[in-house]
Amino acid sequence: MSQVLHTPPPTTAPPATDLAALAARHGLSVSGARPSLPQYVRQLWARRHFITAFATAKLTAQYSQAKLGQVWQVMTPLLNAAVYYVIFGVLLQTKQGVPDYVPFLVTGVFIWTFTQSSVMAGTRAISGNLGLVRALHFPRAALPLSFCLQQLQQLLFSMAALVVILLAFGVPPAPSWLLAVPALVLQFVFNAGLSMAMARLGAKTPDIAQLMPFVLRTWMYASGVMWSIDHMTSGRSGLPSWVGPLLQANPAAVYIDLMRFALIDTFHASQLPPHVWAIAAGWALLAGAGGFVYFWKAEEMYGRG
Amino acid sequence: MAEHTRHHPHESARTSADRVPTVIADGVDIVYRVNGAAAGRGTATAALNRILRRERAGRAAGVRRVHAVRGVSFVAYRGEAIGLIGTNGSGKSTLLKAVAGLLPVENGRIYTDGQPSLLGVNAALMNDLTGERNVHLGGLAMGMSREQIRERYQDIVDFSGINDKGDFITLPMRTYSSGMAARLRFSIAAAKDHDVLLVDEALATGDRSFQKRSEERIRELRERAGTVFLVSHSNKSIRDTCDRVLWLERGELRMDGPTAEVLKEYEAFTGGPDRARPKR
User: Fold this and answer.
1) Is residue A13 part of a domain?
2) Within an 8 Å CB–CB cutoff, is residue B149 touching chain A?
3) Which tens digit of pLDDT belongs to each residue from A196-208?
4) Model pTM score
């Protein structure tokens, strides 16, 4: 039995330089090395059909066992909005001073949910899909991007429900509704960048996924999802004057208010912070580009045991 | 004794200078880091202790390092079918994943010609989707184009034999028996052409007739692929498919040579020849 425990003699591997030279002579590349940024973008573009197919597949698989099936895509956001309405609209009377409170609230909840679930899905994008990362070769950014796309598709269902709610509460359709499109595009870029950054953090420290719900809840309350930042801060003494603009410049509040401005006629431009489109584009650019580069920097590290 | 049978990279390079290398492993070390598996159990106090100690002790206190592969070097050439053998936990699958570029190496380098790919798409498939959609999703996940998938769709379905007993491909995969699901997974995975193909125990799925078909398919893939690596515990399928064998033991390359020689030593090591060992 001693043979079993016997350690084999040290293998006489040739000097490292020989093998490296052999590899160089035949044009072999290092396995699992990180591609350059332009290469990475090209690889990602080549996988675009996978990204969309994976997002759609996740979305359809979500309710495939339910009796009502895809009806839940619309039901879930509606029920969510109803709960917030009962608590904040009826019980806490937050609506004081806000005209069209129900459309105001529901828009806020839907747009916020888009960012919130993108960030949550991004945090788990790598750590929750290690099987996939360890089995197949593809640019890893495909995962957080795919999850954000899934959330965008989810939001489009919610927006359909929102249109019904708007019309039911007497908000007239207007040309300004078209502004919802650029606002959503900017928000999507922002969400994608943020979730890529969170995906890298979550891949290294899975504990972050436990912490995120609290961070996100704090962020939600600071973003004026159920109340108007403008009403809350302008009429009040006691709060320093810089608090209002600061809250209004936070990206979630910017995208929520832009959508309200686009959809609700009683939500005027005066309630928006100055240079709101520039702020919205700036956040999107900063998070989008920054998140992408930050994620790419650790590309070869994802999936380590 | 392992010394004299060792298949030295230099010798092979000398005997046939025109052979083209496809995979070169150069002193490869692979280390897993496992959080929360330190000597203490995974209790809250142990975790807290770990965090507190990290500040003082610096380097990764409480993170256990598992040295899965140690200093492995080899050169694989175009046209070779290489078997990887070794007892459980000897680092075969880990080495394969590193060759595929899916696990980072700690020391050393792995050079490859093109992108080696593991045979397998299980992780990309979703049980709640129909077989049809899974064929598309799996193909895209492996990097096939939509046209390629459309072209090969019927072949994949026919090969899997899913539709032999009725129109099952339009049902969700969760309704399949485990054998049916395994057959579909193998069919999807085997639909792609590979430069360097890595097969990890894939020949053990489905019933007898499907096993025959899949072994045949592996041979076909091998003819088209530059190089094939096969991990298996079945010495028979290694003998049938491979002309060269790497024997890993406790992460170290113990032997590298022609199949017959290495298997003889390996069988002596594991105690007797492969006694009608079941395929799995």
Assistant:
1) no
2) no
3) 999 999 998 888 9
4) 0.81
